[in-house]
């Protein structure tokens, strides 16, 4: 009997250790099911459930959290706080976010967040699923840790916190870059200190946004594994204007996720309040284009000209599309300088900037495409003509033809 009791105790301890080893760190939210941004979210749902096994306790805890979450959402929306059958809730719940959990052999203790499908939940609650949102804002989160800034150069805890944030409940339309391709080059800590509107317009156009939001966190670690102080700043616009600032503290390094998630929610609340108060507005300079300089010329007196000389009229300018390979920022600047230096070129506008790829420029030129091609080839560029466009590159390998849709193409 003693041997069997010892063996049973050993097996129970092994199950408990294995369950605890598989338990996520406290404060590291985990999305258990897929949840989109079109959802109502209820956070802070506490459950404490016992069952015959760890998995059964966890499933029972999630089932209980769905019921409690629906009651909380119903009260928040003014629908009375009534319950629903589990079968209906299974169809409404789009995701479960694990904010904190502890798993034992027969017990499950957790704090969860429940996401409900917005359209289905709104129809049951009798509220509108639509709400007014802001114009699209480019999100540029910056984390200061160890005295150095970090944006999209590599993965960070601050980026993960914004990835976990459910922006579907916010009136701010966040556009969060994936962090791949040219993101690390275009979006970094140095970019926020460049107030020039020309480069900002090109960057915002690259991501299809109207303005930029810059949430910043300075992390101060008291000692390894010890308390962490986060100093948060909500900034916006090309001028890097400060909107709000605050500080939060956690007692140990395991709660870093909780600290950053709380910071994200408070920053989002600050942005929403600024939007409703009229403080957060699109910078008009980001929407305007630089006016083309118009040179005033003195009128020609035909009476002073010989009879056989006729005053020539001004040559009309045509708009040409020029595609240029831009592996680096220097190559992009060199192509613009070359085009602006060609006689007859009135203006060069950036249509699409793609460092590491092919950028597109709009050139206003007093002449035709053939004349511009000759001028570019004379300056050492390889040029290929397409339907209404030119593809240019420094002398080297052959270029593929420019990809320009036909003028008579039908969209839709």
Tell me the fraction of residues in β-strands, as a range.
Answer: 25-35%
How do the helices and strands follow one another from N- to C-terminus? HEEHHEEHEEEHEHHEEEHHEHEEHEE
| Overall average pLDDT | 79
Number of strands: 16
Structural class: alpha+beta
Number of helices: 11
Distance between the termini: 78 Å
Low-confidence stretches: 1-37, 290-298, 308-313
What is the overall silhouette? elongated
Indicate the radius of gyration in whole angstroms: 30 Å
**Residue share in helices?**
25-40%
Give a brief rundown of this model:
31% of the residues lie in helices and 28% in strands. The N and C termini lie far apart (78 Å).
Can you give keywords for this protein?
disordered N terminus; 412 residues; 16 strands; five-stranded mixed sheet; seven-stranded mixed sheet; elongated; alpha+beta
Topology overview:
Elements: H1 2-22, E1 30-31, E2 39-50, H2 54-76, H3 86-92, E3 93-103, E4 107-117, H4 118-125, E5 136-139, E6 142-145, E7 148-150, H5 157-164, E8 173-175, H6 183-186, H7 197-207, E9 211-221, E10 228-236, E11 241-250, H8 256-276, H9 284-287, E12 318-326, H10 329-340, E13 345-352, E14 357-365, H11 369-378, E15 381-385, E16 389-394
Parallel strand pairs: 5-8, 5-9, 6-9, 12-16
Antiparallel strand pairs: 1-3, 2-4, 3-4, 6-7, 9-10, 10-11, 12-14, 13-14, 15-16
Helix pairs in contact: 5-8
């Amino acid at each position: 009997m003693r041997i069997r009791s010892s063996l049973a105790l050993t097996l129970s301890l092994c199950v408990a250790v294995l369950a605890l080893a598989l338990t996520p760190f406290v404060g590291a939210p985990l999305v258990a099911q897929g949840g989109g941004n079109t959802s109502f979210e209820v956070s802070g749902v506490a459950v404490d459930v016992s069952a015959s096994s760890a998995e059964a306790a966890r499933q029972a805890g999630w089932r209980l959290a769905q019921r409690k979450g629906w009651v909380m959402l119903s009260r928040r929306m003014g629908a009375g706080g009534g319950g629903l059958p589990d079968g209906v809730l299974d169809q409404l719940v789009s995701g479960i976010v694990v904010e904190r959990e502890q798993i034992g052999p027969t017990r499950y203790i957790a704090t969860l967040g429940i996401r409900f499908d917005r359209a289905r939940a709104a129809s049951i609650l009798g509220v509108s699923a639509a709400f007014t949102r802001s114009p699209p804002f480019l999100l540029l989160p910056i984390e200061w840790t160890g005295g150095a800034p970090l944006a999209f150069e590599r993965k960070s805890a601050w980026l993960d916190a914004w990835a976990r944030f459910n922006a579907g409940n916010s009136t701010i339309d966040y556009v969060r870059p994936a962090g791949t391709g040219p993101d690390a080059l275009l979006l970094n800590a140095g970019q926020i200190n460049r107030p020039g509107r020309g480069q900002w317009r090109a960057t915002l156009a690259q991501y299809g946004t109207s303005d930029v939001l810059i949430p910043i966190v300075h992390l101060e670690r008291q000692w390894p594994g010890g308390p962490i102080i986060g100093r948060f700043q909500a900034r916006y616009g090309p001028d890097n204007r400060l909107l709000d600032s605050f500080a939060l503290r956690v007692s140990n390094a395991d709660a870093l996720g909780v600290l950053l998630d709380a910071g994200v929610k408070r920053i989002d609340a600050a942005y929403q309040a600024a939007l409703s108060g009229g403080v957060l507005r699109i910078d008009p300079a980001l929407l305007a284009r630089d006016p083309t300089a118009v040179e005033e010329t003195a009128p020609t007196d035909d009476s002073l000209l010989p009879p056989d000389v006729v005053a020539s009229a001004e040559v009309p300018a045509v708009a040409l599309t020029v595609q240029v390979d831009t592996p680096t920022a220097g190559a992009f600047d060199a192509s613009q300088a070359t085009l602006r230096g060609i006689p007859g070129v009135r203006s060069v506008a950036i249509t699409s900037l793609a460092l590491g790829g092919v950028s597109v420029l709009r050139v206003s030129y007093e002449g035709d495409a053939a004349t511009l091609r000759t001028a570019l080839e004379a300056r050492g560029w390889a040029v290929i003509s397409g339907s209404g466009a030119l593809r240019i590159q420094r002398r080297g390998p052959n270029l593929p033809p420019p990809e320009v849709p036909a003028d008579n193409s039908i969209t839709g």
